[in-house]
Amino acid sequence: MQELDDMELVKHAQAGNMTAVAELYDRHRPRIFRYIRFKVADTQAAQDLTGEVFLRMVDNLPGFRPMEAPFTAWLYRIAHNLVIKQGQKEARQPVVPLVYAQEVSHHHDNPAHVVEKQLEMEWVLDGLDKIDENQREVIVLRFVAGFSLKEVADMLGKTVAAVKTLQHRGILALQVALAYE
Fold first, then answer.
1. pLDDT at position 70, please?
2. Is residue 127 within 8 Å of 177, Cβ to Cβ?
3. Structure confidence by residue, pLDDT tens digits, 133-164
4. Separation between Cα atoms, residue 43 and residue 36, nearest integer Å
5. Is the pLDDT of residue 119 over 90?
6. What is 1-93's CATH number?
7. Domain ranges of the chain
8. Can you give the pLDDT at residue 159?
9. Res 88 pLDDT > 70
10. CA-to-CA distance for 42 and 38, rounded, in angstroms?
11. How would CATH label the architecture of 130-181?
């Protein structure tokens, strides 16, 4: 099933093939989790919300229509709506827990390096909070969640050119915001 594209997997999943559902989960869970994890300060809450995204995917898969939106965009909308509904976006603490810095560090890193990564992450998060929301969303989807320009454009209902512009302006705004930190 790994050689099938998303649309083919969706058709199989809609027909009741649980292997196709599992493949969709395996294929999309890491990026959906990264997106939610960036929006939510607590790893456990992010894991719970990620699980909820895929429960809703299974529940709503029979009604999914490929012509309305690409599958990735549809999943992102579910994730985005859950984050908003749970109030996690507004409740996100400005400080990333040290545990998160340890997750991105290497086992051979010394404690000083881990703390340095933590401080850098806090610095970037503070900068992101100071830029336009649309630019921030594009930057998070592109560089944290790892989505392509086309995928982000589909998710946000914008053209690839508009996403490129938001990304470029967002990076410039982030550079300015970080320069004043």
1. 87
2. yes
3. 999 999 989 988 888 999 999 889 899 999 99
4. 9
5. no
6. 1.10.1740.10
7. 1-93, 130-181
8. 94
9. no
10. 9
11. Orthogonal Bundle (1.10)
pLDDT of residue 67: 81
> What residue type is assigned to position 94 of the chain?
P
Q: Where are the alpha helices (DSSP H) in 40-159?
A: 43-60, 71-85, 88-91, 98-104, 111-129, 133-139, 149-156
Beta carbons within 8 Å of 57's beta carbon, 6+ residues apart: 24, 25, 75, 78
Tokens standing for 166? 């938001």
The structure tokens listed for 24 are 């969709």
Residue with tokens 């969303």: 137
> What residues contact 152, with CB distance under 8 A and at least 6 apart?
138, 141, 142, 158, 163
DSSP state of 132: -
Inter-residue contact 27 to 82 (CB < 8 Å): no
